[in-house]
């Protein structure tokens, strides 16, 4: 394993243990067994390395979610049931990947002050919207790219908000069933009003 891979593994471990703002270059290089110069050589900066490590972790989460959702997306189930199953998997990931979500929420705040981080997160969010559009588009069957973008954006908004609620107060955060029921109530109300 090369220094770049060692640094990324160590960066993820440090991010999970210490968070984004408290992880230093020295923390990562000590954990990786490399020199400080290796960060500059492979990534250009500590922030770029941490952003790369987090982006990699989010991609892996997306891949795991897609594999897990393959089972949840059984086409013999109704779209509502599949919607609920997919959200059940997402909510389960909040528990399984709590450290990842905590770091991501910390980065969202930091992005307001660090333009490079904002750019990186903007790109990651675009990928995330696309992935969510693909996952949920399979359920909603959007007719065009504009509809797929709307579905992906709505699901990303729900995911971010639900994740923040879950990190702060998991006991009172919506379950996948409650989220599905809330959507039913909104849809019923919106479609019956004149």
From TrEMBL:
<feature type="DNA-binding region" description="H-T-H motif">
    <location>
        <begin position="24"/>
        <end position="43"/>
    </location>
</feature>
<dbReference type="Pfam" id="PF17940">
    <property type="entry name" value="TetR_C_31"/>
</dbReference>
<dbReference type="InterPro" id="IPR001647">
    <property type="entry name" value="HTH_TetR"/>
</dbReference>
<keyword id="KW-0238">DNA-binding</keyword>
<protein>
    <submittedName>
        <fullName>TetR/AcrR family transcriptional regulator</fullName>
    </submittedName>
</protein>
<dbReference type="InterPro" id="IPR036271">
    <property type="entry name" value="Tet_transcr_reg_TetR-rel_C_sf"/>
</dbReference>
<dbReference type="InterPro" id="IPR009057">
    <property type="entry name" value="Homeodomain-like_sf"/>
</dbReference>
<dbReference type="InterPro" id="IPR050109">
    <property type="entry name" value="HTH-type_TetR-like_transc_reg"/>
</dbReference>
<dbReference type="InterPro" id="IPR041583">
    <property type="entry name" value="TetR_C_31"/>
</dbReference>
<dbReference type="GO" id="GO:0000976">
    <property type="term" value="F:transcription cis-regulatory region binding"/>
</dbReference>
<feature type="domain" description="HTH tetR-type">
    <location>
        <begin position="1"/>
        <end position="61"/>
    </location>
</feature>
<dbReference type="Pfam" id="PF00440">
    <property type="entry name" value="TetR_N"/>
</dbReference>
<dbReference type="GO" id="GO:0003700">
    <property type="term" value="F:DNA-binding transcription factor activity"/>
</dbReference>
